[in-house]
Specification:
The protein is of the alpha/beta class. Helices cover 37% and strands 19% of the residues. It is built from 11 helices and 12 strands. The strands form 2 sheets. A 10-stranded mixed β-sheet has the order 1-2-3-4-7-8-9-10-11-12, with helices on both faces. It has a two-stranded antiparallel ribbon with strand order 5-6. Helix 10 links the parallel strand 11 and strand 12. The longest helix has 15 residues. The two termini are 39 Å apart. The structure holds S-adenosyl-L-homocysteine (SAH) and iron/sulfur cluster.
């Protein structure tokens, strides 16, 4: 709940509204029970207990990389579903990658998160709890959040926006919107809605292909909105927010990594102030034909893009020894449950 919603509720039960901030602060410290809210009267704590529940995520599995200290979590939700998060350490601080849905219905052909479709949306508090739990478990303060875990944030629009407003609240975790990225597979209607919110987050677009035929083959969302429609929405987004957009491009061997693809891509991104992130695709067992190109091919593609005037970098790979790319841990856990 927002501070205003808590305040409204307090008013409705005849409690003073200044209590709202106390409750809000406790919730965003990650308490798991109302009895921990020691500066509230016993009767108010009881009333809260009768009317509300706190659904924190629980750590089901924790894997720490021995290469770079990246920590991957499999979290269990109150209804027994699982989602994944990753805590990464960078020079500028800690960053958490969170999930926004259980599963995903977008059906991208290289991704493990969507293998069984969408189970359900996450609530804003389940998104907040993923960040808080990583902070508590590692005794660190998280400074950056990326909405790049399982799920499509713009397909869970209202909860994602609520999450953004709550996590950046000064009485909550107070993580600045400029330190938050939202990644989308390209739901154009959602991008236009987001533009109207005027939030200074970084928008990240999963492009992954340089022409419509190829993109539709690996990302069904492209059948609804073409690359041109998507890039037009990005241009409008930039014109309104002046926030530079970053594009993700997962390099898949023999599918989208040719010189011809690089040329097509550069032409599409021409004049867009874009930053392009190349990600060698992570192999997923069920998507056997999606293979990772070798290092030279990745470097060649990157050099080609830069020489064609697109600011391009290869995404640093973290947590390679712990399967840190999304959807894979949940898949393993679900297989165990089935057997
Ligand atoms: N649904 C959103 C956000 C979650 S996916 C989106 O698609 O953008 C986060 C990123 O991981 C996306 O760029 C997605 O394309 C990428 N991704 C998914 N599966 C991958 C894989 N096997 N290897 C590399 N990147 C992958
Ligand atoms: Fe969903 Fe993103 Fe995976 Fe596509 S890449 S299936 S949109 S989580």
């Amino acid at each position: 709940m927002t501070l205003e919603e808590i305040s409204e509720w307090l008013k409705s039960v005849g409690e003073p509204s200044f209590r709202a901030k106390q409750i809000f602060v406790w919730l965003h410290k990650g308490v798991s029970d109302f009895s921990e809210m020691t500066n509230l009267s016993k009767s108010l704590r009881q009333l809260l207990n009768e009317n509300f529940v706190i659904y924190n995520v629980k750590i089901k599995k924790r894997l720490e990389s021995s290469i770079d200290n990246t920590v991957k979590y499999l979290y269990e939700l109150h209804d027994g579903e699982f989602v994944e998060s990753v805590l990464m350490k960078y020079k500028h601080g800690y960053s958490v990658c969170i999930s926004t849905q259980v599963g995903c219905r977008m059906g991208c052909k290289f991704c493990a998160s969507g293998l069984w479709g969408l189970k359900r949306n996450l609530t804003a508090s389940e998104m907040l709890s993923q960040v808080k739990m990583a902070e508590i478990d590692n005794n660190v303060r998280v400074s950056n959040v990326v909405m790049m875990g399982m799920g499509e944030p713009l397909d869970n629009y209202d909860n994602s926006i609520r999450f953004l407003r709550l996590i950046s609240h000064q009485d909550g975790m107070n993580i600045g919107l400029r330190h938050i990225s939202l990644s989308t597979s390209g739901l154009v209607s959602g991008i236009y809605k987001l533009l109207e919110e005027n939030l200074p987050i970084t928008l990240s677009i999963s492009l992954h292909a340089s022409n419509n035929e190829l993109r539709s083959a690996i990302m069904p969302v492209n059948n609804k909105w073409s690359i041109e429609q998507l890039l037009n929405s990005c241009r409008d987004y930039y014109a309104k927010t002046h926030r530079r957009i970053s594009f993700e491009y997962a390099l898949i061997k023999g599918i989208n990594d040719s010189d011809e693809c690089a040329k097509q891509l550069a032409a599409k991104l021409d004049g867009m102030q874009a930053h392009l992130n190349l990600i060698p695709v992570n192999p997923v067992q069920e998507h056997g034909s999606m293979k990772t190109p070798d290092r030279q091919a990745v470097k060649r593609f990157c050099d080609k893009m830069n020489s064609l005037g697109v600011n391009t970098t290869v995404r640093r790979t973290l947590g390679q020894d712990i399967n840190a790319s999304c959807g894979q841990l949940r898949r393993t856990e679900q297989d165990k449950c089935k057997n």
